[in-house]
Amino acid sequence: MGIYEFTIDHFLSLDDAQCEERIVAAKAKLGKRLVILGHHYQREEVFKHADYSGDSLKLSRQAAQQGAEYIVFCGVHFMAEVADILSAPEQKAILPDLAAGCSMADMANLKKVEQAWRELSAVQAADEYITPMTYINSAADLKAFCGAHGGIVCTSSNARRVLEWAFTQREKVLFFPDQHLGRNTGFAMGIPLEQMVVWDFDKPNGGLSEEQIKNAKIILWDGFCSVHQQFLPEQIEQFRATYPNGKAISHPECSFEVCQKSDEVGSTEYIIKAIKASPPGTRWLVGTEINLVNRLAQESQVEGKFVHYMAPIVCMCSTMYRIDPAHLLWVLENLIEGRVVNQIEVLPNVAKPARLALEQMLAVSS
Ligand code: 13P
Ligand code: SF4
């Protein structure tokens, strides 16, 4: 085969059925040298090839435990970075499409966080009073910032335990980038809404007065997930009006109002487990990404349960969707040829403190 046969353009001309057959063959050829990790939001044609699936916490544990030479991450950029940081130096983390980012993660960057830290320090010595805590949906340099300042990383499934740990260290928390996960978790712990202020990263001092900063327990970054913010409390009210015995379950990236109206709130893995554990006949309204909800609806139907989607429109994570069978096949067949394409490598000076913050999270949530 010529070199063109290994370019992405060539693979993009293949249909899903052709890709499917060749992915299965490539996986068999690479054997134990390869492990494929797949987030729950992956489309079915890709998800079915994952050796391990899970939420961000489960997948970061898998990334740390896998001995394979190649970790192909069917997810988004920050997940592949975590895989690189937590795996051994000889292992290679690969993201099939480099354009698979996370728009929420992009709402915080090191320059803005450092600026916030300086401005907060002018009010109260930040390194003495504030624990920086980043959601795993963030770039590696923000995890490194947390590691370097006595802070920590959290995921949607361990946010409460991590936040509790953060308050054992210092009296306040700067939480980025998702204000909703921070607010929902803080409120569940008993922190009143008035003590959780939003830091507008485009305004001097986050748009807050000195008094507001001093009185705050959690300073929430003004970030959000554009997929989860489409779910609204009215959608739950409408569902309840039609199905009074139905149950609503939402991801903690949804707004405070949606989470307050939901019967249960949890990570993608939590949502799956809750629906699986419910008895036949249960009817669920689910507020999270469409690919996962469709899969749950299909699987639940066989078990005599009903799964409804919370929004009347399709809320899809368009960046997760960038990982398609063609890109997956492209990276696998190149690996067979000894070419590593789309490797995600975090610089050692960033990886070291980021690893510290991630390991702290794994220790707290074990
Ligand atoms: P989970 O860790 O719950 O899978 O969430 C990841 C994510 O990006 C949700 O939008
Ligand atoms: Fe990021 Fe939202 Fe997509 Fe999750 S669903 S990866 S938070 S954009």
Describe the fold and architecture.
The chain is α/β, with parallel strands linked by helices. It folds into 3 domains: 3-101 and 319-345, NadA-like (Rossmann fold, 3-Layer(aba) Sandwich); 105-225, Rossmann fold (3-Layer(aba) Sandwich); 228-309, Rossmann fold (3-Layer(aba) Sandwich), CATH 3.40.50.10800. The protein contains 17 helices and 13 strands. It has helices at 8-12, 16-30, 44-47, 56-65, 77-86, 110-123, 126-129, 140-148, 159-169, 179-188, 210-215, 233-242, 256-261, 268-277, 290-302, 325-336, 348-364, and strands at residues 34-39, 52-54, 70-74, 92-94, 130-135, 152-154, 172-176, 196-199, 218-221, 247-250, 264-265, 283-287, 306-309. Strands 6-5-7-9-8 form a 5-stranded parallel beta sheet, sandwiched between helices. A 4-stranded parallel beta sheet has the order 2-1-3-4, covered by helices on one side. Strands 11-10-12-13 form a 4-stranded parallel beta sheet, sandwiched between helices. Strand 3 (70-74), helix 5 (77-86) and strand 4 form a beta-alpha-beta unit. Helix 2 packs parallel to helix 16 (325-336). The radius of gyration is 21 Å and the shape is globular. Residues 76, 102-104, 137, 225, 227, 253, 289, 317, 319-320 line the site of iron/sulfur cluster.
Helices, strands, pairings?
Elements: H1 8-12, H2 16-30, E1 34-39, H3 44-47, E2 52-54, H4 56-65, E3 70-74, H5 77-86, E4 92-94, H6 110-123, H7 126-129, E5 130-135, H8 140-148, E6 152-154, H9 159-169, E7 172-176, H10 179-188, E8 196-199, H11 210-215, E9 218-221, H12 233-242, E10 247-250, H13 256-261, E11 264-265, H14 268-277, E12 283-287, H15 290-302, E13 306-309, H16 325-336, H17 348-364
Parallel strand pairs: 1-2, 1-3, 3-4, 5-6, 5-7, 7-9, 8-9, 10-11, 10-12, 12-13
Helix pairs in contact: 2-16, 4-5, 5-17, 8-17
The structure holds 1,3-dihydroxyacetonephosphate and iron/sulfur cluster (SF4).
1,3-dihydroxyacetonephosphate binds at residues 40, 55-56, 137, 155-156, 225, 253, 267-268.
